[in-house]
Write a structure and sequence with these properties.
Blueprint: H1 5-19, H2 23-28, E1 37-38, H3 41-55, H4 60-76, H5 78-89, H6 94-107, E2 117-121, E3 124-132, E4 135-139, H7 145-158, E5 162-166, H8 172-188, E6 196-199, H9 204-212, E7 216-222, H10 225-232, E8 237-241, E9 247-250, H11 256-268, E10 280-284, H12 285-297, E11 300-302, H13 305-315, E12 316-318, E13 324-326, H14 335-341, E14 352-356, H15 362-365, E15 372-378, H16 381-392, E16 398-402, H17 406-416, E17 420-423, E18 443-444, E19 450-451, E20 458-466
Parallel strand pairs: 1-6, 4-5, 4-7, 5-6, 7-8, 9-10, 9-16, 10-15, 11-14, 14-15, 16-17
Antiparallel strand pairs: 2-3, 3-20, 12-13, 18-19
Bound molecules: nicotinamide-adenine-dinucleotide.
Nicotinamide-adenine-dinucleotide binds at residues 139-144, 166-169, 204, 207, 222-224, 226-227, 230, 241-244, 275, 367, 441-443, 445.
């Protein structure tokens, strides 16, 4: 049975009346209501499904206009969404979150990312085109809530999909606000009004419903190990952007002053909440003192042995399996807050705490997601690479190296085998800040799509015309 455009509009209108402006929405809504956000996750999935069918009936030119409107709305609201994210989650620094929101709005590829491949020959003509999946279930993290929703929405809508988000419950307000702003932009550009949907109260239950729903064709999961493992067991196609623990190698040929400045900038950006941020440094013994001295000049605090022990007793704890995990109270907090909590008098300007430890210390092996950077001394390149591989823990995520020796850089990049390898720059250069290339906030590490973009969220379809249509 076919369904007309006007009937689709009618159904969305009916659902909108049914689910908007209710008491749950009212609690967090502006006067305009929360486009795309529903009490019932089933209603959200249905609205996204119907809206996606409307989207694919629009021309590609119209889709491009919708994407431009989404970018503009995200840029116009970058500051307010950054402050909201900071206030709601308590993570990071608002000024860095503004950068992330703008980066996602400006450097996420749009429809130009979709390339049609054509084969022509004696037997005729064949096209391979990038087609949408339909409705994507997107599970988003607390660490980059607004930027991930902006980035995923631009990529997934460019690819012709509708999206049902399951934002992290502790970042739901800012995530729903971002969804609302983007939906308003889509609607204002003549697109469907519920292309981006979510439950008003996203929970682990709504996440499970999304992961098992018959109308969700693809799952895109950005988060830690637990959610990636759950999604992988769903039986659906999954694009998983999992955790990392990015090591940095500094060898004896590096420009140490620059390496110190770059590591400080990357590791302190948004209080180290980014999955790509420098988490531990393996530095040649011969240049270690100079590196630490230069980092201290860049406003890093060097903790002594007793202070490191105190920090360990405060900022990490053991989970039920005896594995070290960060104490959530300190995730994404300012360095001065962490130091004060350990009874160490701290300057509010400190960007990072430096802790010189052995390579098996929990500050090296744990993804801390806070501005405490482990520094470990090594004798040579093979020791540095070996220890960096162990610390990276097969996440295949990100690594950095500071060196002027191309052979050393090549050997480390090949052996570490990470999705992103940054040479002589802060980690965020790998995401297109002070570095070339497009951006994403969803780096698909375990499933291998790498830095996702619109084409990652398409299925390839072939159309063959046999024996004709050529002009030679
Ligand atoms: P998290 O894993 O706690 O939450 C991520 C999402 O998964 C949330 O929406 C949450 O509600 C959901 N979730 C968590 N456990 C679940 C379960 N058992 N079943 C169903 N849904 C579940 O992650 P977080 O703390 O918000 O984010 C930080 C983690 O995400 C870090 O490990 C970081 O490295 C990683 N991350 C990776 C990327 C990347 O691109 N690879 C980007 C950002 C964050």
């Amino acid at each position: 049975m076919s369904i007309t455009d006007s009937r689709i509009e009618e159904i969305i209108g009916e659902m909108t009346n049914k689910f908007y402006g209710n008491s749950a929405a009212g609690a967090i809504t502006s006067k305009t209501g929360y486009l795309g956000c529903f009490n019932d996750i089933e209603a959200a999935i249905e609205a996204a499904r119907l809206s996606q069918r409307q989207l694919v009936q629009l021309s590609m030119e119209h889709r491009a206009k919708i994407i431009s409107a989404m970018r503009k709305a995200a840029i116009d609201n970058a500051v307010c969404l950054a402050h909201m994210a900071n206030e709601e989650t308590g993570f990071g620094r608002a000024e860095d979150k503004i950068h992330k929101n703008l980066l996602a709005a400006e450097k996420t590829p749009g429809i130009e990312d979709l390339r049609t491949v054509v084969f022509t020959g004696d037997d005729g003509l064949t096209l391979t085109e990038c087609a949408p999946y339909g409705v994507i279930g997107a599970i988003t993290p607390s660490t980059n809530p607004a930027a991930t929703v902006i980035n995923n929405s631009i990529s997934m809508v460019s690819a012709g999909n509708g999206v049902v988000f399951n934002p992290h419950p502790s970042a739901k307000k800012v995530s729903l606000e971002t969804i609302k702003i983007l939906n308003e932009a889509i609607k204002g550009a003549g697109g469907p009004e519920a292309l981006l949907c979510s439950a008003i109260e996203p929970t682990l239950e709504t996440s499970k419903t999304i992961m098992t729903h018959k109308d969700i064709r693809l799952l895109v999961v950005t988060g830690g190990e637990a959610v990636v493992n759950v999604a992988m067991r769903s039986g659906k196609r999954v694009i998983a952007a999992g955790p990392g623990n990015p090591p940095v190698i500094v060898d004896d040929t590096a420009d140490i002053k620059k390496a110190a400045a770059d590591i400080t900038k990357g590791a302190s950006f948004d209080n180290n909440i980014l999955c790509i941020a420098e988490k531990e440094v393996f530095v040649f013994k011969t240049v270690a003192d100079e590196l630490v001295r230069e980092m201290v000049k860049n406003n890093c605090y060097r903790a002594d042995k007793a202070e490191i022990d105190k920090l360990q007793s405060v900022i990490v704890e053991k989970d039920k399996d005896g594995k070290y995990v960060p104490n959530k109270k300190f995730v994404g907090k300012n360095a001065s807050f962490i130091l004060n909590a350990c009874g160490i008098k701290a300057n509010a300007d400190f960007k990072l705490v430096l802790a010189e430890v052995d390579s098996d210390h929990p500050f090296v092996t744990t993804e801390l997601l806070m501005p405490v950077l482990a520094i470990s001394r090594v004798d040579n390149l093979s020791e540095a690479i070996h220890k960096a591989v162990v610390a990276e823990n097969s996440c295949k995520h990100t690594a950095m190296m500071h060196s002027q020796n191309v052979t050393n850089l090549t050997e480390a990049a090949r052996t570490l085998d990470t999705t992103i390898f940054v040479k002589n720059a802060p980690s965020y250069a790998g995401l297109g800040i002070e570095g070339e290339g497009y951006t994403t906030l969803t780096i698909a590490t375990p499933t291998g799509e790498g830095l996702t973009s619109a084409k990652s969220f398409t299925r390839l379809r072939r159309c063959t015309l046999s024996g004709s249509f050529r002009i030679i």
